[in-house]
Amino acid sequence: MSELKKIREKQNLTQEELAEKSGLSVRTIQRIEAGTEPKGYTLKTLASSLNVSESELLMPNIQEVIIVQEPILETENNPSENIGLIKIINLSSLPFAWFPIANFLPPLFIMLINKEKSTIVKQIVSLQIFFAIIAPIIFMIVIFLKLGHESVTATMVILTIANVYIILRNAFQIDKTQELRYKLNFNLI
């Protein structure tokens, strides 16, 4: 965690409140909290706004130094991941939620175009591929049981609603904790 974020949270300020108080943009504060070192005017302004010395904003965290020296592993909580892109990849399945065979194509396509191959993105695509395999199997079982047209229609609707729910629930969880609510214990890609 960056020193700026620690100090900001200790003073019970949001990024937006600090931006307003300092006259800096929210994006600048986000970049500094993500690891960019503040310099010059930005450093002086933040120190003055937070009532701390400039050196307090620059002091490295011993734990972060140790982590930097170790190989960086890709995890679901890696702050370097682009959460906005991850949410778009997750939500891109919605237009095809009713058509399970194609529901994994938009997220896979966006993943490949943007070269976003983090663990969480692989889980999103794997979950949709898994759903694309399981949904037709369930659908065919209902057809072969000859339960009637109503059952076939109800199965389609239930499978679509289930997929939409999974996508939306994961989107909410990504936004809240930067993790997936529903995920597989393995990757299909």
UniProtKB/TrEMBL annotation:
Keyword Amino-acid biosynthesis: no
Annotated signal sequence range: none
Subcellular localization, as worded in the UniProt entry: Membrane
Origin: domain of life: Bacteria
Keyword Transmembrane helix found: yes
GO molecular function: DNA binding; DNA-binding transcription factor activity
InterPro entries: Cro/C1-type_HTH (IPR001387), Lambda_DNA-bd_dom_sf (IPR010982), MamF_MmsF (IPR019109), TransReg_Diox_bact_type (IPR050807)
One cellular component term from this protein's GO annotations in UniProt: cytosol
Chief localization: membrane
A Pfam family it matches: MamF_MmsF
Sequence intervals crossing the membrane: 125-145, 151-168
Topological type in the membrane: Multi-pass membrane protein
Domain HTH cro/C1-type stretches: 4-57
PROSITE patterns assigned to the protein according to its UniProt record, in alphabetical order: HTH_CROC1
Keywords, sorted A to Z: DNA-binding, Membrane, Transmembrane, Transmembrane helix
Descriptive protein name: Helix-turn-helix
Species assigned in the record: Epilithonimonas bovis DSM 19482
